[in-house]
Specification:
By secondary structure, the chain is of the alpha/beta class. The chain has 2 domains: about 20-40 and about 270-455, Enolpyruvate transferase domain (UDP-n-acetylglucosamine1-carboxyvinyl-transferase, Chain, Alpha-beta prism), CATH 3.65.10.10; about 45-260, Alpha-beta prism (UDP-n-acetylglucosamine1-carboxyvinyl-transferase, Chain), CATH 3.65.10. It is built from 12 helices and 23 strands. Helix 1 (about 45-55) packs parallel to helix 2. The radius of gyration is 22 Å and the shape is globular. About 50% of the residues are buried. It binds shikimate-3-phosphate and phosphoenolpyruvate (PEP).
Length: about 450
């Protein structure tokens, strides 16, 4: 539909501009029909962006097979190009786009550059320590939503390593890192209670510091690092590329100085992004299979194996295929999601249609994700007639009859997919800005349409 008024000239003050208009996507409703399907999803965001970054640091050209192609991975590619790496697309065997070949960066250029982080935590946290290896002034900025995401421990760590960082005292985006042609390294103490990405960011580059890195986490009030499987993923990927990492002491990581070995790697599919599709089986009493599920993985999305049975679903990994069968009646859960916070929006969507109350714990740090996810989930579930409430470290969701309406997504891909899950069993749900799923899964609307349109394959 055309807007009723002519476009507002850019010169007018903000207050005169109309509120942003996002498309409202009618979420497919299946009612009583069980969703039965089999599908795979594109590559893991977390693995793709780690391997891309490590390729730029490696001792030779590297190849990523079946990588993710999404907004977050493109932002990482552009960031690494800005720092001097070459990244090329080459034909591959993946179902979701070409492979990527990366020629490592040369660190000698001095021309200042700007890096757009979008809303990608992996770009805004992982790339600044890489900029420290070069000789450029690198300015980092991102979406309005990125400017409020926690960044302080990365900025302070860079200063602790001797770098000059201009941040106007905010400890957030935008800021400029002044590379001084190398980092000596040594010991650092950070508080990573707000994000595991602070730990991963420093570990990923630590081997390229002259003396390596000894990193310790000391959380305020003794609190731990959330999303620990993501730190374990970082450690495992580094070891696979020949980097010596000692994580034998809790909350302490020792990275020895040395090269990052060039590699050729197949990226696993994104198990977190498989979540909404598996949730479709749970809320509709259907059956969804995901072939090529890894036997062993560091992806937090592997937690679906424990999480979905807690709702009464059957879950089985057999012959490399993960299959979820939904229960006749979805019961609520009491779960600590501190290890897998990025799954929480999908989990909350299932809780919203469950028949008994749920409690989700250990996810206070979701307030610093793409949006304040605890507030957003409460607002959107309750807008549809639900009964959700924030707690200090999570959510309580009680059963309530839901009705149709708008489910806002707050530029958050996982809010958008949570709305789609609810919309399967609640008629007339309109998800605002489904295109925001392009952050990590641009194919979401197509895959979702295929999911609800098929009754074969599982
Ligand atoms: O390192 C990573 O790839 C990620 C770590 C986690 O961040 P937090 O520790 O901030 O939750 C996760 O939620 C995010 O989606 C991806
Ligand atoms: C928290 C998330 O993303 P990011 O990598 O931007 O932190 C997420 O994908 O759920």
């Amino acid at each position: 539909m055309n807007p009723p008024e002519a476009p507002v000239p850019a010169a007018l003050p903000d207050a005169a501009e109309p509120a942003p208009q996002h498309e409202l996507w009618p979420a497919p409703f299946v009612g009583d029909r069980p969703v039965v399907a089999s599908l795979t999803v594109p590559g893991s965001k977390s693995l793709t962006n780690r391997y891309l970054l490590l390729a730029a640091l490696a001792d030779g050209p590297c190849r990523l097979r079946s990588p993710l192609h999404s907004r977050d991975s493109r932002l990482m590619v552009e960031a690494l190009r800005a720092l001097g790496a070459r990244v090329e697309e080459v034909e591959g065997a993946g179902d979701f786009g070409p492979d990527l070949v990366v020629t490592p960066a040369s660190w000698d250029d001095t021309e200042p550059v700007t890096v757009d982080c979008g809303l990608a935590g992996t770009v805004m946290r992982f790339v600044p320590p890489v900029a420290a290896l070069g000789r450029r002034a690198v300015t980092f900025d991102g979406d309005p939503g990125a400017r409020v995401r926690p960044m302080g421990p990365v900025v302070e760590a860079l200063r602790g390593l001797g770098l000059r960082v201009e941040d106007e005292g905010r400890g957030r985006l935008p800021f400029t890192v002044h590379g001084a042609g190398g980092v000596r390294g040594g010991e650092l103490v950070i508080d990573a209670t707000a994000s595991s990405q602070f730990v991963s960011a420093l570990l990923l580059v630590g081997a390229r510091f002259e003396e390596g890195l000894v990193l310790r986490h000391r959380g305020a009030d003794g609190r731990g690092v959330p999303s620990m499987p993501h730190v374990e993923m970082t450690v495992e990927v580094l070891r696979e590329l020949g980097v010596d990492v000692d994580d034998s002491v809790p909350d302490e990581w020792r990275v020895a100085p040395g090269p990052v070995r060039a590699f050729d790697v197949e990226i696993e599919q994104d198990l977190s992004n498989a979540g909404p599709f598996l949730a479709a089986a749970v809320v509709t009493g259907g059956r969804v299979s995901v072939p090529r599920w890894p036997e062993r993985t560091t992806q937090g999305g592997d937690h679906w194996k424990q999480i979905l049975p807690a709702f009464g679903a059957e879950a089985e990994l057999a012959g490399g295929t993960f299959t979820v069968g939904g229960p006749a009646v979805v019961t609520g859960v009491d779960l600590d999601l501190s290890e897998a916070g990025e799954l929480a929006p999908t989990v909350a969507a299932i809780c919203a249609v469950a028949t008994t109350p749920s409690r989700l714990r250990g996810i206070a740090h979701l307030r610093g994700h793409e949006t304040d996810r605890l507030a957003a989930l409460v607002a959107e579930i309750n807008r549809l007639g639900g009964d959700a409430e924030e707690t200090e470290d999570g959510l309580v969701v009680r059963p309530a009859p839901l009705h149709g309406g708008t489910f806002r997504s707050y530029e958050d891909h996982r809010m958008a997919t949570a709305g789609a899950v609810v919309g399967l069993v609640v008629p007339d749900v309109l998800v605002e800005n489904i295109a925001t799923t392009a952050k990590t899964l641009p194919e979401f609307p197509r895959l979702w349409a295929e999911l609800v349109g098929t009754d074969r394959g599982a």
